[in-house]
Amino acid sequence: MSSSLRQWFARVLVLTQLINGALCWGKEGHYTVCKIAESYFEEETVAAVKKLLPKSADGDLASVCSWPDEIKHHWQWRWTSPLHYVDTPDYRCNYEYCRDCHDTHKNQDRCVTGAIFNYTMQLMSASENSDTIVHYNLTEALMFLSHFIGDIHQPLHVGFLGDEGGNTITVRWYRRKTNLHHVSVCYRMLKEKVIFPDWINYSYDLPMMKVWDNMIIESALKTYYNKSLPLMIEALQANLTNDWSNDVPLWESCQLNQTACPNPYASESINLACKYAYRNATPGTTLGDDYFLSRLPIVEKRLAQGGIRLAATLNRIFSSKPKHAGS
Ligand SMILES: *[C@@H]1O[C@H](CO)[C@@H](O)[C@H](O)[C@H]1NC(C)=O
Ligand SMILES: *[C@@H]1O[C@H](CO)[C@@H](O)[C@H](O)[C@H]1NC(C)=O
Ligand SMILES: *[C@@H]1O[C@H](CO)[C@@H](O)[C@H](O)[C@H]1NC(C)=O
Ligand SMILES: *[C@@H]1O[C@H](CO)[C@@H](O)[C@H](O)[C@H]1NC(C)=O
Ligand SMILES: *[C@@H]1O[C@H](CO)[C@@H](O)[C@H](O)[C@H]1NC(C)=O
Ligand SMILES: *[C@@H]1O[C@H](CO)[C@@H](O)[C@H](O)[C@H]1NC(C)=O
Ligand SMILES: [Zn+2]
């Protein structure tokens, strides 16, 4: 094999591993949302959640909050894929349940907001009539609901139909050479050792959806949190008791005393998608510090809101208090 050919193979190998490595961060956002939620659970919620969690969770909801992403590619779970997002008409920057909540075959309610209503209803029916036979797998219902409340807070999960929520927009995510060793965090997790050559700038193509699912969080961990997710979660929790404390009751509340209210969350997300995700990110753009630094506060706030609202929803579901105290 000629040396240039060998070099080419080496490049392809490193790039492939790099991209796979980058994507292994998908769990971090969901873990964060669920971890924040746990600290806002009422006593009854703690007990109910503990009872429903699978053994593999070891008592920690956050550890199974990515489960719906892990299974969605298996054929028997393929029907769940449309439940992770909702597409809205291009450039309208708004969301309407009846218009938008369907899958590509126009089956109504098959989208992330419909799924949140669905799994809330399943958990409610069991919580209200504990003596009737339950036809649903409530362990799955809890894991789906916890995951989808996270998903709906990621702006591009309520993106445009035309680009599949940023999935078909390819951008370049820039990584300075000096940051290279940080990339290996993910590989250590995979127990892989990768040697990084210095002849390449680590800017590579990826769908914009992945920038918002993974890369902004990953870069934040490297830049501000010493690669430690617990440190980032701590920072968000500190903000919740300081800067954001006045907003928390508003984030928790549901109109008309509903148990779950995903529709306003979806409207917020498409708004943020238009204002921040799509802006200055046309296909082929290299997204660097400008983009990262201005979008990170949005991502952090959405993770915190997702956590607060997941806790509020589960507290309403599992609370034994009368649902309409006023009546
Ligand atoms: C509701 O949940 C059930 C059980 O997982 C599932 O079969 C059904 O497709 C779900 N529907 C929606 C709209 O999420
Ligand atoms: C409920 O779902 C979980 C996760 O899919 C599964 O492990 C468990 O066996 C199911 N329980 C029942 C009673 O089917
Ligand atoms: C890497 O980036 C630097 C500065 O952005 C540039 O000067 C250099 O030519 C790039 N190297 C390669 C191999 O693209
Ligand atoms: C960053 O994390 C490493 C362990 O991963 C630790 O040894 C180091 O002290 C930490 N640095 C700071 C500033 O906390
Ligand atoms: C919502 O609940 C509160 C008390 O929990 C009650 O005072 C109020 O009237 C209710 N609002 C609606 C629209 O049901
Ligand atoms: C905390 O809140 C302030 C004010 O909203 C914001 O600027 C900052 O980015 C937040 N920090 C974190 C870690 O979210
Ligand atoms: Zn998802």
TrEMBL record:
<dbReference type="GO" id="GO:0003676">
    <property type="term" value="F:nucleic acid binding"/>
</dbReference>
<keyword id="KW-1015">Disulfide bond</keyword>
<dbReference type="GO" id="GO:0006308">
    <property type="term" value="P:DNA catabolic process"/>
</dbReference>
<keyword id="KW-0540">Nuclease</keyword>
<dbReference type="InterPro" id="IPR003154">
    <property type="entry name" value="S1/P1nuclease"/>
</dbReference>
<keyword id="KW-0255">Endonuclease</keyword>
<protein>
    <recommendedName>
        <fullName>Aspergillus nuclease S1</fullName>
        <ecNumber>3.1.30.1</ecNumber>
    </recommendedName>
</protein>
<dbReference type="InterPro" id="IPR008947">
    <property type="entry name" value="PLipase_C/P1_nuclease_dom_sf"/>
</dbReference>
<comment type="subunit">
    <text>Monomer.</text>
</comment>
<dbReference type="GO" id="GO:0000014">
    <property type="term" value="F:single-stranded DNA endodeoxyribonuclease activity"/>
</dbReference>
<keyword id="KW-0732">Signal</keyword>
<dbReference type="Pfam" id="PF02265">
    <property type="entry name" value="S1-P1_nuclease"/>
</dbReference>
<keyword id="KW-0325">Glycoprotein</keyword>
<feature type="signal peptide">
    <location>
        <begin position="1"/>
        <end position="24"/>
    </location>
</feature>
<comment type="similarity">
    <text>Belongs to the nuclease type I family.</text>
</comment>
<keyword id="KW-0479">Metal-binding</keyword>
<dbReference type="GO" id="GO:0004521">
    <property type="term" value="F:RNA endonuclease activity"/>
</dbReference>
<dbReference type="GO" id="GO:0046872">
    <property type="term" value="F:metal ion binding"/>
</dbReference>
<keyword id="KW-0378">Hydrolase</keyword>
